[in-house]
Amino acid sequence: MATAKAKTQTFLARLPLFQEATPEDLDRIAAGTTEQRVPKGQLLFQRGDPCLGFHVVIYGQVKLAMDSPNGSEKVIDLIGPGHSFGEALMFTDRAYVVFAQALSDSLLLHISKATIDAEIERDPRLARRLIAGLSMRLHGLIQDVEAYSLRSGMQRVIGYLLRDVEEQARAAPVRVVLDANKGVIASRLNLTPEHFSRILSDLAHQSLIEVHGSEIRILDADRLRSSLN
Predict the structure, then answer these.
(1) Strand ranges (DSSP E) for the chain?
(2) What are phi and psi for residue 110, nearest 5 degrees?
């Protein structure tokens, strides 16, 4: 039990949210934290379930999505290691509006709302760090809305491929590994899987990329970047 608690404290200490926490702080937070091992494909929660805290992904990947009335699925976000979700809803006392599903075998920490409330009372700086994280998330959502509203499907895919490519990358090939299957990524970009595949084929036909399964080789980042304008 002590070993498991120490491991939880180690995980918590690595998170930016708790980077200023003392060992005593981490001990209290760990007491209100539950470790969750979620196998690939399993639902973590469903739309309508109560939100009693927030989650942090230690390893694996979680999809946040919602079902439409016609049965199709819209992926809202993909959450990877070191990232969290559920903070904003936690403070509203409302139910989840999306469902969460593990895309691979995953380890998560669930930190209870009561624990966070108590820590904010002790140290208001935690609230500022939470607000900073939520602000970054809001900025990302605004960028998503801009992309869906003002950018073509081609521009959305190019933006996705270049999201982690350094501006300094010039003509040398750059390797990008898709962080989920193509159907999930297509939904995240508000595209059908068929449209997403056609765009990849078009980019390959223009000698801008090469597609090798889940690996994309960007042959000329400058040329690809210029296509965004």
Answers:
(1) 33-38, 43-45, 53-59, 62-67, 73-79, 84-85, 99-102, 106-112, 174-177, 209-212, 215-218
(2) -110, 120
Amino acid at 206: Q
Tokens of 150: 């003002």
Burial class (CB in 10 A: 0-12, 13-18, 19+), 92: exposed
Sequence length of the chain is 229
The top-level CATH class assigned to 2-149 is mainly beta
- The identity of residue 160, as a single letter, is Y
CA distance 211 to 214: 8
Do the Cβ atoms of 110 and 117 come closer than 8 Å?
no
- 115 with 28: CB under 8 angstroms? yes
Q: In the numeric block, which tokens belong to residue 4?
A: 């498991």
Residue 104 contacts residue 61 (beta carbons within 8 Å):
yes
In this structure, whether the domain defined by 152-226 belongs to CATH 1.10.10.10 is answered with yes
CB contact at 8 A, 120 and 126: yes
Q: Where are the domains of the chain?
A: 2-149, 152-226
Q: What is the tens place of the pLDDT at every residue in 37-86?
A: 999 999 999 999 999 999 999 999 999 999 877 778 899 999 999 999 99
The structure tokens listed for 171 are 């003509």
**What's this model's pTM, rounded to 2 decimal places?**
0.82
| CA 125 – CA 17 distance, rounded (Å) | 10
